[in-house]
């Protein structure tokens, strides 16, 4: 699954799954642009991964079209090409359906879904021009979630954004297939990122997570990075429009919920 001399952009890559993907890509020979809003963590990620290969950090709010345009320009200035885009940037806002603020809904959809669209469109335009000039088609990878299928009552915009991400993957794949550009998604289950780290110190929370995970453990960011490396490689050359779920068996699981006692 060598990515030797490929150029990749990974959004939201200053930490978590995005950082693990950036690391794997660099280890596989790619030149990587880390896009994020957290400049301190972005600079630290650049320094750490720079010891392994060619890495650049670029400040980018993916929900802002100008930032996305500057991200593409900075990548081309640094490495001269873009072969891989990973739309990983995402945020969550917890609130019950009746209490959710419109601004929070807009903010989550703006980053998680609109941001993926803006980045995909901008990068795809470069990729299409390259193909027309006789170059090699690229690939786009969208970070979805099991919550594109399941719903969480107090994660309204997040669940909606991931459902939309699956459709974005499909429509982009169909639109770009004539150029040989592949678009696929990854749907992680429970992964040991900072957002989930608290379960290690909360036995009840850990039990809830494991009760819905047939493999009996929480996944590691590196395991999602392995899926991304496969999708970015020529080994996935006939795959497009698909979302691969790395969830420890959660989606096939049919389990019960507590039922109140009858009066």
UniProtKB/TrEMBL annotation:
The name under which this protein is listed is SDR family oxidoreductase
Q: Which organism is it from?
A: Stappia taiwanensis
Which example biological process does GO assign this protein?
A: fatty acid biosynthetic process
**Keywords (A to Z) from UniProt:** Oxidoreductase
InterPro entries, from UniProt? KR_dom (IPR057326), NAD(P)-bd_dom_sf (IPR036291), Sc_DH/Rdtase_CS (IPR020904), SDR_fam (IPR002347)
> What Pfam families does the record point to?
adh_short_C2
List the molecular function annotations (GO) for this entry: oxidoreductase activity, acting on the CH-OH group of donors, NAD or NADP as acceptor; quinone binding
The Ketoreductase domain is annotated at 6-189
């Amino acid at each position: 699954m060598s990515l030797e001399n490929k150029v990749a952009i990974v959004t939201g890559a200053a930490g978590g799954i995005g950082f693990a993907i950036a690391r794997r890509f660099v280890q596989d020979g790619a030149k990587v642009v880390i896009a994020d809003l957290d400049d301190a963590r972005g600079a630290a990620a650049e320094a750490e991964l720079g010891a392994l290969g060619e890495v650049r950090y670029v400040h980018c709010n993916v929900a802002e079209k100008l930032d996305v345009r500057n991200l593409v320009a900075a990548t081309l200035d640094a490495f001269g090409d873009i072969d891989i885009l990973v739309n990983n940037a995402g945020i969550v806002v917890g609130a019950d359906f009746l209490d959710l603020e419109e601004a929070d809904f807009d903010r989550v959809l703006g980053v998680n879904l609109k941001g993926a669209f803006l980045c995909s469109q901008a990068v795809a335009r470069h990729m299409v021009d390259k193909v027309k000039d006789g170059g090699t088609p690229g690939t786009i990878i969208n970070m979805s979630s099991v919550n594109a299928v399941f719903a969480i009552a107090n994660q309204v915009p997040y669940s909606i954004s991931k459902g939309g991400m699956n459709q974005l993957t499909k429509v982009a794949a169909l639109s770009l297939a004539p150029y040989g550009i592949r678009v696929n998604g990854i749907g992680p289950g429970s992964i040991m990122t900072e957002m989930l780290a608290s379960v290690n110190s909360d036995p009840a929370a850990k039990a809830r997570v494991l009760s819905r995970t047939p493999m009996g453990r929480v996944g590691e960011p590196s395991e999602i990075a392995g899926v991304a490396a496969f999708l970015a490689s020529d080994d996935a050359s006939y795959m497009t429009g698909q979302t691969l779920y790395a969830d420890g068996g959660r989606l096939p699981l049919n389990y019960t919920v507590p039922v109140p006692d009858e009066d």
